[in-house]
Amino acid sequence: MRHLTPEQVVTEFARTIPVLEDEAEKAMQAAVELTFQRMTELAPKGATGDLARTITHTVRKTPEGVSGLVRPRAKYAEFVEEGTGQGHAYASGWGAKTPGRKLALHVKGGGVVYRRRVRGQRARNFVQRTRENVVDEVEQLLAVAAEHATRRLFP
């Protein structure tokens, strides 16, 4: 076993940190790219494909570490993800609490009120399915990054 002086320990840490940060950033970039690709594939396309085109991804390096974010930016993405039926975000307003059964009240013209059936939208869970789809591959990317860092530090 090798004994290090305090100065040698500081030198080793100073050498280690940039390598770990570099490998972590590479792994995060790969994980974010993979997640972005899968989320874009799994997002409902509808008639226009607008939701998939609003998905963005970023990787940020801060003094605390590296973070990545993949998300749809469309205002309606939450409703597509969670649905508009009972217990979902839209249900507290005029939406369908039980799809096909709620009657929504509308004002028409000079204050005439009429009723019509409103159906909720089923949850599409494309964000959740993306997570489930990539979690094993992201863990593998992190393991490979740790292996690369080890090889760089201890050739």
Concise synopsis of the structure shown:
The protein has 155 residues and is of the alpha+beta class.
Write the topology of this structure.
Layout: H1 6-42, H2 50-53, E1 55-62, E2 65-72, H3 77-82, E3 102-108, E4 112-118, H4 126-153
Antiparallel strand pairs: 1-2, 3-4
Helix pairs in contact: 1-4
Task: Please characterize this protein's 3D structure.
The protein is of the alpha+beta class and 155 residues long. Helices cover 48% and strands 19% of the residues. The protein is built from four helices and four strands. The protein has helices at 6-42, 50-53, 77-82, 126-153, and strands at residues 55-62, 65-72, 102-108, 112-118. Strands 1-2 form a two-stranded antiparallel sheet. Strands 3-4 form a two-stranded antiparallel ribbon. Helix 1 runs antiparallel to helix 4. The two termini are 17 Å apart. Mean pLDDT is 81; it is low at 87-106.
Q: What are the main properties of this structure?
A:
155 residues, alpha+beta, 2 domains, two-stranded antiparallel ribbon, two-stranded antiparallel sheet, 4 helices, 4 strands, 19% strand
Element pattern in H and E: HHEEHEEH
The N- and C-terminal alpha carbons lie at a distance of 17 Å
Structural class: alpha+beta
The residue-averaged pLDDT reads: 81
**Largest sheet: spatial strand order:** 1-2
Residues in β-strands, percent: 15-25%
Q: What is the radius of gyration?
A: 25 Å
Q: Biggest sheet, open or closed, and with what strands and sense? A: 2 strands, antiparallel
Instruction: Tally the structural domains.
Output: 2
Low-pLDDT runs:
87-106
